[in-house]
Amino acid sequence: MNKNKNSKRRQELVAIAARLFCDQGYETTTVRTLAAEMGIQSGSLFHHFKDKQEILFAVIESGMLHAMEIARQALCEAQTPEERLHALAQAHLSTLLQDRDAHVVAIYEWRSLTDLSRAHLVELRDAYESIWREVIYECQQAGLVPDDQGLRRRLALGALNWTVQWYRPDGPLRPEDLAQTLVDMLLGRSPL
Amino acid sequence: MNKNKNSKRRQELVAIAARLFCDQGYETTTVRTLAAEMGIQSGSLFHHFKDKQEILFAVIESGMLHAMEIARQALCEAQTPEERLHALAQAHLSTLLQDRDAHVVAIYEWRSLTDLSRAHLVELRDAYESIWREVIYECQQAGLVPDDQGLRRRLALGALNWTVQWYRPDGPLRPEDLAQTLVDMLLGRSPL
Amino acid sequence: MNKNKNSKRRQELVAIAARLFCDQGYETTTVRTLAAEMGIQSGSLFHHFKDKQEILFAVIESGMLHAMEIARQALCEAQTPEERLHALAQAHLSTLLQDRDAHVVAIYEWRSLTDLSRAHLVELRDAYESIWREVIYECQQAGLVPDDQGLRRRLALGALNWTVQWYRPDGPLRPEDLAQTLVDMLLGRSPL
Amino acid sequence: MNKNKNSKRRQELVAIAARLFCDQGYETTTVRTLAAEMGIQSGSLFHHFKDKQEILFAVIESGMLHAMEIARQALCEAQTPEERLHALAQAHLSTLLQDRDAHVVAIYEWRSLTDLSRAHLVELRDAYESIWREVIYECQQAGLVPDDQGLRRRLALGALNWTVQWYRPDGPLRPEDLAQTLVDMLLGRSPL
DNA sequence: AATGAATGAGGCTTCATTCAT
DNA sequence: TATGAATGAAGCCTCATTCAT
């Protein structure tokens, strides 16, 4: 099995799998379909991945790692708590759009992961959410957001994640508007 | 096949299916498992439902019909736009908790429906969302919410729906707090 | 799955499997071939047996149970130690010929059993061998066979078992001759 | 492919294959496992052997050639018919113990050989058995063994071959005792 | 001699569904 | 309504073998 987990080729295969899992669902996507779309034979798939499940893991992991990276970069350039919150929301939307397939898969196919894989990804998710926790905490310290045991943070993240259900980048709504409205809601502001 | 779609027995079976589909996923739950949990043989299942897929449809439909009913009742007793918005959010949370299984299934297994079934359920969903649209419109007319092409409504509904991912009724958070915070965010209020 | 382990139908299937496993080997015999020879579809096989391995177990177990039964019956009618020894050898040869398939499979495919199955069959085998141990012990007490820690017993049983490799019932050698010669060798006699 | 069939390297590989085939069975041992134990990659294996099956052939052939060699040497030093019979039994046991892997494989995996390979090995086996035939014949001429169309020879060889099933060199029984008892049984003697 | 990715046929097993009882 | 044996298509995965490097 090809152990080079970050090879260009592998990343391509993961992207293709992400698309298929997103479109058809993990259980419904057959190994043969995966292979066909990748331009290889079904047997060859198992040189790259131990399991069908390992492909699922790779898809979700790649989405999460990317999300983390983008969030970190976005925060580097932001200063005030509010700016940082805004940057984070923007970054979140960016990955959601850029790696939509992977994130949709993460949401829908979480259950199909093995316990071990899931445990590993839970760590990643916790790491990501702790970034949000931190930024929200800064906002609280600055008196911008009430201390509500993370309630607003959870609602906001939920609202963001749910956007994959309805948001289409080719619609009239710009991502910036989305992020702005989200921040407004979090901070208890109304544009009126 | 039992044509009496609302028979007590059938509703029991649907509830059992909802639980299994929610816990294990639609694709992963076998007809045999369904039958076993229902206390019958797998062959007998097909006297109650034409298809495995029809069971899925019944599960989701029942959740949606229930949601609609609860929403309508809640609105009957509410007067001002804000009260009505609050009542709606509360009602939404209620079904989400009461019929959690069915709603989780609706979210996760939407894809496994046949086109025909999906079309029918889309109608139901649209009917439900139009209730929200209406109430939000009333709030806009009252100057409580900005006119943003449904953006806030969508974010709010997303935030609510996402609660099935993390909200546990046995935790410290009461559903009322959730509904209140949600309304606050929608209306651009901060408890600070 | 059909739980009636002694049904006529099941015994037929086991006999067919025995023949195939004997002729082609367990690993080499495919489930599809098994099913085809049984006149059913490959999927139907799994109503009767949980596993391919369970078929192997059933084949070997049936051979062993039969061997035990025949040995017990033969001993009922024999009196003196030597008669009993002779009856036992004769009985052993009988099963070896009657259930040749099953016994060949037992010898060759022992390794393919699961640990659990093997443990169960080891008990059966031990029970069978203890019959031999007993009869040989009677012969020792009667001064017919030396006490050699079971060495002659083992050599004799080995010689018998090996007959499946070369003995053909349609040859010039009668089973009785075989049994007689075996007993002669065990008792240290020569026809000269 | 390496045409030097007797190269040191090749003999090593054959010995490793013998061990694996003996422990896991021919069908169950994968080419990858073979290669791994040999310290090479699976592709490289095919530079040494045309086929997986050719490895099996090499294993069995080597065991047989060795057996023949040891038998011939043993007979060189023996004089009387009985001495020669004893030497032969002793030699047989020696190879059975020395090359246990190869002989076990010969017994169990005979079926997996191609017809061509099998035919070649049948010649070797016949050559070996004719040595036994000869020595037994000498014993017959000397009045030590009855003329029974090879029945005692076959039983004796079977008893010997079967020893691989139960004999362990680290047990209380010495190979010499085994050989002696075997000869006694063949010649119709009892130590009593 | 060696590598190791790729092949592609084929293996075991599962599963929704049917149908005679 | 209920049963449960049978179906047969399809799923995931393995494995001996090849071939360009």
Question: What features would you describe in this structure?
Answer:
The structure is a homotetramer of 192-residue chains. The first copy, chain A, has helices at residues 8-24, 31-38, 45-48, 52-76, 81-98, 100-109, 115-141, 151-166, 175-187. By secondary structure, chain A is mainly alpha-helical. The first copy, chain A, has one domain (52-187): Orthogonal Bundle (Tetracycline Repressor, domain 2), CATH 1.10.357.10. The interface between A and B is large, with 41 and 41 residues. Chain A binds a DNA duplex (21 and 21 nucleotides) through residues 2, 30-32, 40-48, 51-52.
Short description:
The structure is a homotetramer of 192-residue chains. With 192 residues, chain A is an all-alpha fold. The first copy, chain A, has nine helices and no strands.
Structural features:
mainly alpha, 192 residues, DNA-binding, Tetracycline Repressor, domain 2, 72% helix, homotetramer
Biggest pleated-sheet summary of chain A: none
**CATH topology of chain A, anyone?**
Tetracycline Repressor, domain 2
According to CATH, what is the class of chain A?
Mainly Alpha
Largest interface comes to: A-B, 41 and 41 residues
Summed up, the helix count of chain A is 9
Rounded average pLDDT of chain A: 93
- The CATH architecture classification of chain A is Orthogonal Bundle
